[in-house]
Amino acid sequence: MSRAGVDWLAAMQTCRRVLDALDWRELGEIYFHWGGEGFWRERVPKVSTLGKALGQALLPRLPRGGSSLWVGAGVAELPVLLGEVMLHGRSVTAANLRARECELLNAGLQAVAPELPLRYQAGDARELAPGQVFDHLGCISVFTDPETWPVLSEVAYGRIAPVQIDVEKFVVEREQARALAKGLFARLQRPGLVTTSAEEVAWFLEQAAEVEASIEASEDLVETAVVGDPVGFLSVR
Ligand SMILES: C[S@@+](CC[C@H](N)C(=O)[O-])C[C@H]1O[C@@H](n2cnc3c(N)ncnc32)[C@H](O)[C@@H]1O
Q: 141 CB less than 6 Å from ligand 1?
């Protein structure tokens, strides 16, 4: 239990109230273009249970009162973000390129917990909170995002045959993704922690090798509620 007497039960009550307050029709359109509201109706209980499982695995690895930079944070991250802020007194910068998604999530947070210092910010995570470094970087299913990097996504998930790859597009996307990994890694203090999905680990291994940092990966993996990628933790020194 946190010093302020807030435990996971209270954090998840807040989480469920925020989830209840969200506009699922619009969120459905943003995520899935069609049939989204129905998908969410099925998935929302998992957002709570898997998000809590991720938060319970993450918080013991993080110092109280530190700060996290979350890139590509959406609905799935809500329980973890609430856990960090409410239970661990941490500050959270949560970035997402989809401005409307940030507005919708923030409307839910504002309606339920206006006093809580947690809001999503629209924009490139590299550009938010300039000059600040973080002891934790959260990056779940970003380098595999089909909207941002269609070719990298198909390669990462093994959904394209080598003969079908548009190599020029692949190279362009890979350099953009490398630049993102570099920019994010530069915001992480050492020792630090990265929460990321198994498919994205190699982006951070490459950056660590460049600056001769060591990385130790956790054994345990937690499934995520929306994309379904397994997520684990990288300790960076
Ligand atoms: C596939 S979604 C994953 C969302 C969420 N993490 C999840 O697991 O459900 C990828 C997200 O990454 C965001 N994204 C991609 N590049 C980004 C960047 N440079 N800064 C912030 N967000 C970014 C996109 O806007 C998108 O919302």
A: yes
